[in-house]
Design brief:
The protein has about 260 residues and is of the alpha/beta class. It contains nine helices and eight strands.
């Protein structure tokens, strides 16, 4: 199965975020880095700081709070501002370019892998008959996913009905544009979509789009995801109650 080509989409007028999960879910939209794949993005952002500030100051918490989920230039500027780099505006483009060069080197070295719990979760969601989209602002997402295959030999990209990764957007996360585009291409109203994200900006984008947000805290950042108002936060997708999903409900597994 090949993910569908996505047509242009006009965003609706902004609406107030909903206050509680009370809809029946029928589709899922997945972020890539940190949700489906363990990638060297954070490492590349850190190593690209050489010559600007001490790279060790760029922590995982900073990456998750300031960079993860955002378009490249927005993430670069946010990181430099958070680190107090002088002339952050003038240095943003160069920093972003160095990060991209280093990231491509790391990807070529075979540093990308899939999270086993994510692959299990994808299979379970597909088995329910839900439509699925993959949506990442990263221009590298498709290339990374092409290197991942299931035990059956099926490629990771083949499992999705819709792919909106790496496309040019008017607004990056926490704006909901990318998720609204995905929902439109799936032909599912946003209120019936579950977004799976690992970044606070992504959770905020799902909330702004009136979607249900499942936060995956792989970096000890559950508090950040809860602060962004994720409907459920888990440390592994194995902790989601699969038996509730066919009934359109997002729940954690009993402990």
């Amino acid at each position: 199965m090949k993910a569908a080509e996505v047509p242009a989409y006009t965003l609706p007028e902004p609406t107030e975020a909903r206050t509680h999960q009370s809809r029946t879910l029928t589709a899922s939209i997945f972020d890539v880095d940190g949700v489906l794949l363990a990638s060297p993005h954070e490492q590349a952002w850190r190593e690209a700081l050489v010559g600007l500030v001490e790279p060790s100051r760029f922590t995982t918490e900073m990456y998750q709070a300031q960079v993860a989920g955002k378009p490249r230039l927005a993430g670069a500027r946010s990181a430099l501002d958070a680190l107090g780099v002088k002339d952050a505006a003038g240095r943003t483009a160069g920093y972003a370019e160095r990060k991209q060069t280093r990231l491509e080197e790391l990807i070529a070295a075979g540093t990308v892998s899939a999270f086993p719990d994510a692959l299990r979760f994808l299979r379970a969601v597909r088995a329910m008959g839900w439509r699925m989209a993959v949506a990442s602002s990263s221009k590298n997402a498709n290339g990374m996913m092409r290197s991942i295959r299931f035990d059956s030999g099926e490629g990771l990209l083949d499992i999705f009905d819709v792919n909106v990764c790496g496309r040019d957007l008017r607004h990056g996360k926490p704006d909901p544009e990318i998720f609204l585009i995905a929902a439109s291409a799936l032909h599912i109203e946003p209120a019936r979509c579950m977004v799976v994200e690992d970044a606070p900006a992504g959770v905020a984008a799902a909330r702004a789009g009136r979607m249900v947000a499942l936060g995956v805290a792989r970096h000890g950042d559950a508090a950040l995801l809860r602060a962004a108002e994720a409907d459920l936060v888990v440390t592994s997708l194995d902790d989601v109650a699969i038996d509730a999903l066919p009934h359109g409900r997002l729940r954690g597994r009993p402990t």
